[in-house]
Amino acid sequence: MNAEPLRRYLEFYRDLGVKSLYRVAPPPGAAARVRDRQEAAPLPPEPMLPILPSLSPEDDTLEKIRADIGDCTRCRLHQGRNKLVFGDGNPQARLVFVGEGPGADEDAQGIPFVGRAGQLLTQMIENTARKEGIPLRREDVYICNVVKCRPPENRTPEPDEMEICGQFLFRQLAVIHPKAICALGGTAARALLGRKEGVTRLRGNWHGWRDIPVMVTYHPSYLLRPYNQNAKREAWEDLKKVLHLVYD
Ligand code: SF4
Predict the structure, then answer these.
(1) How far apart are CA 166 and CA 16, in angstroms?
(2) Residue having the nearest C-alpha atom to atom 6 of ligand 1
(3) Model confidence over 4-18: pLDDT tens digits?
(4) Are residues 24 and 129 in the same domain?
(5) CA-CA-CA-CA torsion for 189, 13, 177, 113, nearest 10 degrees?
(6) Is residue 121 within 8 Å of residue 222, measured between CB atoms?
(7) Residue 164 Cβ < 6 Å to ligand 1
(8) 219 Cβ inside 6 Å of ligand 1
(9) Cα–Cα distance between 102 and 114 in angstroms, integer?
(10) What is the four-CA torsion angle of 154, 160, 166, 168, rounded to 10 degrees?
(11) Of 38, 58, 78, which residue is a domain's last?
């Protein structure tokens, strides 16, 4: 990659808050083949492989991002994956929900938030909207996760996994450019805001990812636990704020 495109490319990711980049590992045996070739006839230095898939931020699209992800093996989460879960919903949505990562049902179907937590999220969106007089269906919003592959035993994604896969999330958000983002749970809040505080401290107030307002609220899987009645009420309050900001 020439210096100028590389500079623009790195600036774009710096603006998105990405602090480190990774190189695509050469295929097995590549180093030995290069050494053999160099012994036979010295070669000019090999150009570095692109750090990330080539990107023109101005004309980026969800289709290009999905194509760039490909059959991704960039982090260890690919090892247990059945289906990669990219995102679902309206590509021109005014509201995007960001969760943590796929669970078992999502991994099986390749669609985010389709298990019990997903059904609760759908109910929360549609019931709250109806009560507030806003005609909104789940398919009108866009839903995705910080990591696209299921972490083993549904563990929290590791920081390096969030950073690598989060670059695709940031591109999705930049392309859709919704009027607001709702971060579901602490992992989404950390990825978007870089904040370490828990949801209880962050929820209920507006934050920001670039120029887009972000509301943090509880992940629906937390709300499914029977002793979290207060959290349910708070999540409904958070959602009401989001819906009125976006659709009033
Ligand atoms: S979680 Fe993201 S970065 Fe990791 S393998 Fe899956 S798509 Fe690639």
Answers:
(1) 10
(2) 149
(3) 667 766 665 665 555
(4) no
(5) -50
(6) no
(7) yes
(8) no
(9) 9
(10) -110
(11) 58
